[in-house]
Design a protein that fits this description.
Four copies of one chain form a homotetramer.
Chain A (H helix, E strand, L loop, with lengths): L1 E7 L7 H16 L3 E6 L3 H6 L2 E3 L36 H11 L4 E6 L1 H12 L4 E7 L11 E2 H22 L2 E6 L6 H9 L4 E3 L7 H13 L5 E6 L5 H5 L2 H10 L5 H10 L6 E4 L12 H19 L5 E6 L2 E6 H4 L11 H8 L7
Parallel strand pairs in A: 1-2, 1-4, 4-5, 5-6, 5-11, 7-9, 7-10, 8-9
Antiparallel strand pairs in A: 2-3, 11-12
Helix pairs in contact in A: 1-11, 5-6
């Protein structure tokens, strides 16, 4: 009898259930009645506190299209290694104990960067783990693509599309805040797909006067409206030059609920047109996964089951040049896949006249 | 030769182009080459400053599905009657002059409440006008339905749907701001359709402690997440008791960019769960009209052409009990169709357990 | 203790689950622990064969957006009254027996015309019933609107939209078959919303030569493409003149799988352009209900619970002039709400130049 | 002064206008007033008959989201090289003459396999050409991805989603015909994404009895419904064994309008459940491109402009391992990128239990 645990951790995104289904269906196809799958509740939290249940095949039926995660999720349980919390709970030890209590052969872990780091810690602690790269940010190192990303791009693009019709009818400037605190793949793709005129990324600090000039030039060329796709983590050149500590402090004291409001204010004193703000927020991580993500999730899920079959533990499943590959968790942990400022997407965007505010 | 002018005024919304197309196609079908249609640019502004052009039949082709307005729009040109501006432009006189210059038989005006009021003014000044009720707010008096409303409800509902999957996965509280400054039809409908747990409307002042209690009760019943559909114009019972002047002042001094941020703050000190904010904003007025709005716009457009054929001027086209009727502009002007607090939709919402925070 | 049974019968459509949820949530809100809801499986079949189960409140959670029906459905169990089948099962007696076995206070029935007829039969047999009007065809007598209709219109319209871009790029003629065997509300609404050039309804027999002429005229006017929205039940003037028996025989012997293929063939010999066929089929009844249908379903569901509370049995819940009303099942049974050939929607469609092939 | 011609040829698909826009915007950014772009009407036909016009920058504005092609398209003008038609028109000579007449520096050609072949012919004839790979089939050799593909997958997946809710509610078998005559990428991806139980591809001939057995097994396991994603070009093992000539003859004489109807008939005599057919047809190629395709189209368009800048003619722009590369037309012409029967997507699909009918 194979015993497999499965958990989803970190911010939810589209494709989690599709991936879970891929893992489960493959395991049942391969092992039939000789496999038991344990669903662990609310991410690592469930592993720490022993909240899990034996799943049935029908639990994985009909979830391909479902947003969110049927297992629940929670934030990362610790930032530091092996934290013992205020109630003297040794989190890592608890996780190991519950792993043993369930008599698991392997633990399948779906999550983003923080989650991969913890997965690697558990590997180092001797647990068999296989992980999948989940995030709308597409910032997991070791894979060209994460599931959730393209679904999110689709939603953010749709927002930009709709804003477009209003912007053109009124001749207004719209600042749309698109998810991405540290990494700008999502605003970059949505910005290109949604026909943004300016895209602001965490990777390319902006110069507010250059942005104002870009908008003025558009007006001078008869284009009265403009749309800015602004990453949550967009920052000015001045901020980029700050020490990390000072930057964090400045942001914490910022009077605006998020950066797009500050940007709108900064622009209001520089351009004549009316400026409006749109903050779609978590809308971008919800709903049914797009077809692309469903196929990717299914492939990832089947590949995780394959690694379990082959007892090839300690890996994250990745997509590299269109092929599924196992990537050692030891290599993935602690890295971040940011947008190279000279990547092809940015070059193409610049070539068609999109400004990055730099 | 018939000469018909057409303009769209006020905030744009879905269905404007579908309505314009309905008017134009009907006129061309009826009068063939014996009609000239003048497109007036950017609402009343174009009429004041004489910016218009003779349209061709092909200009109205392929616009049924198009968001925004091909004619452009602008805000209401004056709040007071017959304003003479700082450049000594007599706006009303200019509009009358340009109407005569185009030798119009009738001016077709598409817009919301403010627009209808100005349309009525032009009628009083002796112009032949026919108007159509446009707005995502569905607050135009004299018609059961405006075009734009159901398209907007669809978008806001979609936002709530997506937020739902994140909310359930994380056990969080989400406050989603839905358009509606004075009137709550849109948040009411989207709230019901999107499965909101709490709906806050301008018409029903809220008690923050009651909302907090509702959320706590849900948690006590095992529902860790909650979704609040919050009208832009939601207000507390304390605010509702203020004098209008004091309320306006208080709002102008409010440190939050919009009400939903304040609400989130107020709740943060009262409930344990994490709270997130989503402000889809003008996203709700853009994009292609839904099928409902396209049919309604087509019917409204054809009806406007019929009124022109019958020289039955001075009316807004309305929908009453499923039938198209002409509604005298003199009756429409200056009124607002708010949500009755005991309307069937609210009663049904309460019956299935939705709270209105009161 | 209240005991309520609930079943869905006939073809599925969007909004069934939203309606079921509306009924259940209202009952639980009203009666709390003093109500038991029995879900009856696969429509009347479950009532005949005693397949049902006690539902829990959480069964009705999260189904607002879900297509299909969580209870399952089946076709009408009999065409004639009180049929005793080949296995000597007295269907009506069985239904009465199971109703008693469950000790029901009332049976809530969701379905279309056939379902309403059987609901009325059960009422005549002494059962307490309350019914809801479900169908994408909007052909239930006694209500202005059924749930499912607008969701379906949205889908069919989206098909026409997409076909449009291909049709215009290629200058082709497209015949799109839209659901509606006896009644044409769906093709009428989708046809108008989707910008069809010709709409063929069961209520308006067509003349193939007139259609060909319409298409030729369009080509002569520089419009190389045309789109036909064709009801499943579209029929020619010759067929309309046949005796019902002869018509049925002719159709049964027709070599085409459905009418749109015949139409395409008939046109192919009359016009030069290439002709393509599209049969979206049951696609039109599936997926998540649109916002309009969710609100309507919720209102209908709450109203059904209200009728139960008031012991006002024997009624279907209807929407008349925007208000919820109880409609005696005795009046509803056996009637059909067809499209009046002079209804406002058809008149408006003709006014903007849409042909009905007559 | 640079003079660039541009044409779209073959079946239309999503992303054509986005690509055209990418080419044009890049050219204008690079060359400003020193470039003239000539739009050639209806594909090669316009080049043969000299139908083209000088485009203006605003012609390329607002078309990013637009389905179809603003230039119009037509089928391949010849199957054989250098055909002289019944009116003694030497097509190739005409194309060369018009190229010279327009004084083009380069001709940008957007199209699928047939189009690339003709592009290569024109290259051999001495014209400067750069081409882009367009098709919903993703079957162009030399590129990992064509634009149109993912948009199409999204639509076909949505159809399968909606069919799902009906299929489950009724316990029926649905056969959905998905585009793909020779190559099955689209039904493969849509089938996986749409949760199909059986996928039939041109590349994997089916055994009808095996399909029937799969469906029976599902019923035996309590799954009363099944969904088949059937490529237009699906064929049986018997047909696959035929000589090409015999196969073509047999298909031409087939009494069904398309293969899915035959399959439904074949299954009807083998399984008990009701079977329904859905033929979404050209619906799959229309409408707005998805975000993925818009980004890809923009990158392709910018890359085409780059090749023109570098005078690197005679290439198709391709995407290989995530990078844009020029692929010599001489290598592309006449090849087809079919689905390898052991590709990762098929293996994953089999691993989660999807049958390919073989």
């Amino acid at each position: 009898m194979k015993r497999i645990g499965i958990l989803t951790s970190g911010g939810d995104c589209q494709g989690l259930n599709a991936s879970i289904r891929g893992v489960a269906k493959s395991l049942y196809e391969e092992f039939g009645n000789d496999v038991e799958i344990y669903g662990i509740k609310d991410g690592y939290k469930g592993l720490i506190f022993g909240e899990y249940k034996l799943m049935k095949p029908e639990d994985f039926s009909g979830i391909l299209t479902l947003g969110g995660t049927i297992l629940g999720t929670s934030r990362q349980p610790f930032k530091l290694m092996r934290v013992i919390d205020e109630n003297s709970v040794d989190k890592v030890q608890n996780m190991k104990d519950n792993y043993k209590k369930m008599k698991l052969d392997c633990l399948v872990i779906l999550g983003g960067n923080g989650t991969q780091k913890t997965a690697n810690l558990l590997r180092e602690e001797g647990l068999n783990v296989v992980s999948l790269p989940k995030t709308i940010d597409n910032d997991v190192w070791g894979t060209d693509m994460t599931f959730g990303f393209h679904s999110s791009v689709e939603i953010a693009t749709n927002v930009l599309d709709c804003i477009h019709t209003t912007a053109t009818s009124h001749g207004r400037i719209f600042c749309v805040e698109i998810m991405g605190h540290k990494v700008g793949w999502l605003p970059l793709y949505a910005g290109i797909a949604g026909g943004a005129d300016v895209i602001l990324l965490p990777e390319i600090p902006y110069d507010i006067d250059k942005i104002a000039k870009t908008l003025d030039n558009r007006i001078a060329n008869g284009k009265k409206f403009s749309i800015l796709a602004v990453a949550e983590g967009a920052l000015s050149k001045e901020e980029a030059a700050m020490k990390k500590k000072d930057f964090k402090k400045a942001r914490a004291e910022m009077k605006y609920p998020s950066i797009v409001y500050r940007l709108a204010d900064e622009l209001a004193s520089r351009v004549d047109n009316e400026i409006r703000v749109c903050v779609p927020g978590h809308f971008q991580r919800g709903g049914s996964p797009c077809a692309y993500d469903r196929v990717l999730s299914t492939r990832f899920g089947a590949a995780a089951a394959r690694l379990i079959r082959e007892k090839n533990y300690g890996n994250m499943v990745g997509l590299v040049n269109g092929k599924i590959v196992p990537v050692p968790l030891s290599e993935v942990a602690g890295k971040l896949k940011t947008v190279p400022v000279d990547c092809e997407e940015i070059l193409a965007a610049r070539e068609i006249g999109i400004s990055f505010g730099d």
